[in-house]
Design a protein that fits this description.
alpha/beta, 234 residues, 5 strands, five-stranded parallel β-sheet, 8 helices
Length: 234
Amino acid sequence: MPPRQLALPFAHVPSHAAADFLPAESNAAALAWLADDARWPQRRLVLFGPAGAGKTHLLHVWAARTGARVLAGPALAGLPPPGAAAVDDADLAPAEPLLHLLNANAEAGQPTLLAARTPPARWTVALPDLASRLRAAAVAEIHPPEESLLRALLARLLSDRQLQVAPPVQDWLLLHLPREAAALREAVARIDRAALASGRRITRALAAEAVAGMVDETSETSDPVAFPAAPALL
């Protein structure tokens, strides 16, 4: 008997292309602000929303369109040079480098896009000058995803990993998982690992095993939810 081949896992790298972002009512306001950075007060915008809602994706889309740098907030240090910039996890950035970047870009007339999970009013900011600049910035919220976006996102996540999952299994996942984009991303990653490790096709049983501990227990006794079909853009 020939030796069994081992399936080797490969790190999944999500796409940040503009065509891969799923527009919806929950992110429409944010998209409108990003489309017109010339109207940002002092050329600054703070984008906030829950984990997995697409903030990092939108930062990369805007940066690709404008030629801006994408910076990790916690890694900011020293005196960042002026230039269009998109700062992810900006609420975790050291105060002095972030203040310097905002001041340098304001003087140079360059836009600065900041992203975080919460609005700047809820950040812990020790420097009064930084706090005043954040208060004066435009703010755009990405709201929790609606049902149609959750269904479209699940289909996209499965397709990105080339996972074949029957519609009834997808329905089960949507019904039982928390109503959050981050939960869907984690669930699909778990299912991918479980299918790879077991060599089994993805059934409801395998999916349930993979997402054990993530399932919303309250949904077990709730009435079934009718999910709308995925948008035509998919």
